[in-house]
């Protein structure tokens, strides 16, 4: 914050906020949430995949305009270009990974229990 010339009083006020002070019992959640915030709109899909992998930050899915029956998608669908140019291999990949078809709610390999 000093690099961005933020006043030291503002820095101290921010760092003393109870939501910011490190709490060891919530350590992983706090660290991953900060990581998510630093990656958001800054590092491609990294924030999305880390959130899906860890569950942090937790998102509310009960507000207005929520789609997908209130579930956060677990994966991206295969792109239209893949359907057009590689349908046979795409269908083989989908059937081997997702017995219920190509859905955003299917568990990708990263989320499957071994």
From TrEMBL:
Source organism superkingdom: Bacteria
This protein's UniProt keywords: Lipoprotein
SUPFAM superfamilies (alphabetical): TPR-like (SSF48452)
Protein name, UniProt field: SusD/RagB family nutrient-binding outer membrane lipoprotein
Source organism per UniProt: Gelatiniphilus marinus
């Amino acid at each position: 914050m000093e690099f961005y010339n933020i006043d030291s009083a503002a820095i101290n006020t921010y760092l003393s906020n109870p939501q910011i002070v490190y709490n060891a019992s919530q350590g992983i959640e706090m660290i991953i949430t900060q990581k998510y915030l630093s990656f958001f709109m800054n590092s491609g899909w990294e924030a999305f995949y880390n959130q899906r992998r860890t569950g942090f930050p937790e998102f509310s899915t009960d507000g207005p305009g929520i789609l997908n029956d209130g579930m956060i998608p677990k994966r991206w669908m295969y792109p239209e270009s893949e359907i057009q140019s590689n349908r046979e291999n795409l269908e083989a990949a989908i059937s081997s990974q997702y017995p219920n078809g190509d859905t955003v709610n299917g568990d990708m390999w990263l989320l499957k229990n071994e």
